[in-house]
């Protein structure tokens, strides 16, 4: 019995060695060079100079606690984690988030945020702490105001932890308390960085010239990567180590919420950004040099911004369905199917001419999905 079991193990090992020997790197030299631009990962993110508690352990711990506590909402029923579910990649598992009412958009995943310059689907904030306070004061979400938030904090379990980071809240201006809480939330969210994936092991092996290790990356994922880099044109917008250029494009998804109401996307986001006191150019930034403030000063709304939305990063995407700003695409296969047969009539008339139906076969579509799944450290 033991001899038979050992024989089976030897046969299995032999088959594995033959399979490994037959595997190969399918990318051309040019494709390898382009693949290398999507790493290394994770990068060493620097602290946010506009947030004086960025990277501070006590602030991170405070932000983590507040993130899951409904004390931030007016009626004490909603937390950040209510829509940004930690078990779902810090994203929303429903198509559209539920605040006090059903919201117009899906809640974006809160991972790899230090890689971004603009935040939210429409880029209505230019820093993470401003994005963190937006749902707190939004009447359709947590529906809180600065005075109410201060009162809730002073009587909450977090008062001492807040005081250890920012000083006693009781004597502080309510608006300062609001911003400080947002900065603690931002400090926590900065730590939500996805880990290396099978794609990263492939990419790093290519960079090291270790073709034997690189060849362990599944051939289906390699074929999908070739489509991603080439005929799919995906890498035009999903660039760099985070797989996003961080900018705003029309993906051919309807932006009519109802027959008479439109989600204006980036155009409305820019109007909100320009009116906000919470920008990198505003009085609540802790950066005396106002790094990055040039962007909010110079950017201007254009008609072509209507119905454009921020390009999401693809790392961890396998955990964060559904997809698109309205949550209308249920899974990664639906996303590929959308781009494979995209309706050109839905694209903005004066927008960018960068999308066209991919025309992938069923096998090619499956390969592209396999590549996208390989960008997630936990692939369900």
Looking at this protein, list some descriptive labels.
globular; two-stranded antiparallel ribbon; 2 domains; Cytochrome Bc1 Complex, Chain D, domain 2; mainly alpha; 380 residues
What does this structure look like?
The protein is an all-alpha fold and 380 residues long. 39% of the residues lie in helices and 2% in strands. Helix 14 crosses helix 15. It has a two-stranded antiparallel ribbon. Strands 2-3 form a two-stranded antiparallel sheet.
How is this structure best summarized?
Pfam families: CCP_MauG. The protein has helices at residues 2-22, 29-36, 57-67, 80-83, 128-137, 146-154, 159-166, 174-189, 198-208, 211-214, 219-229, 266-275, 293-298, 332-340, 362-373; strands spanning 248-249, 256-258, 261-262, 309-310. With 380 residues, it is mainly alpha-helical.
């Amino acid at each position: 019995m033991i001899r038979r079991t050992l024989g089976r193990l030897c046969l299995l090992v032999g088959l594995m060695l033959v399979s490994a020997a037959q595997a190969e790197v399918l990318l051309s030299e040019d494709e390898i060079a382009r693949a290398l631009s999507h790493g290394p990962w994770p990068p060493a993110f620097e602290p946010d100079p506009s947030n004086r508690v960025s990277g501070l352990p006590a602030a991170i711990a405070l932000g983590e606690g507040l993130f899951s506590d409904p004390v931030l909402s007016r009626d004490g029923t909603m937390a950040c984690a209510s829509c940004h579910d930690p078990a779902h990649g810090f994203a929303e598992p429903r198509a559209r988030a539920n605040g006090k009412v059903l919201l117009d958009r899906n809640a974006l995943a809160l991972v790899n945020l230090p890689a971004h310059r603009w935040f939210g689907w429409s880029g209505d904030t230019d820093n993470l702490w401003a994005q963190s306070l937006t749902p707190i004061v939004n009447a359709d979400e947590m529906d809180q105001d600065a005075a109410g938030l201060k009162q809730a904090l002073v009587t909450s379990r977090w008062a001492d932890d807040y005081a250890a980071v920012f000083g006693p809240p009781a004597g502080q201006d309510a608006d300062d308390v609001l911003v400080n809480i947002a900065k603690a939330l931002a400090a926590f969210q900065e730590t939500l960085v996805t880990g290396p994936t099978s794609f990263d092991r492939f990419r790093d092996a290519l960079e090291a010239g270790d073709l034997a290790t690189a060849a362990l990356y599944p051939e289906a994922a390699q074929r999908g990567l070739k489509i991603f880099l080439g005929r799919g044109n995906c890498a035009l917008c999903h660039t760099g180590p985070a797989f996003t250029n961080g900018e705003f494009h029309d993906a051919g998804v309807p932006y009519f919420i109802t027959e008479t109401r439109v989600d204006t996307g980036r155009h409305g986001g820019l109007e909100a950004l320009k009116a906000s006191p919470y920008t990198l150019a505003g009085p609540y930034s802790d950066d005396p040099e106002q790094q990055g403030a040039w962007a909010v000063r110079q950017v201007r709304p254009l008609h072509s911004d209507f119905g454009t939305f921020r390009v999401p990063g693809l790392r961890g995407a396998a955990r964060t369905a559904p997809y698109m700003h309205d949550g209308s695409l249920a899974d990664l296969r639906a996303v590929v199917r959308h781009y494979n047969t995209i309706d050109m009539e839905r694209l903005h008339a004066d927008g960018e001419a960068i999308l066209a139906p991919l025309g992938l076969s069923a096998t090619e579509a499956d390969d592209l999905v396999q590549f996208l799944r390989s960008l997630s450290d936990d692939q369900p």
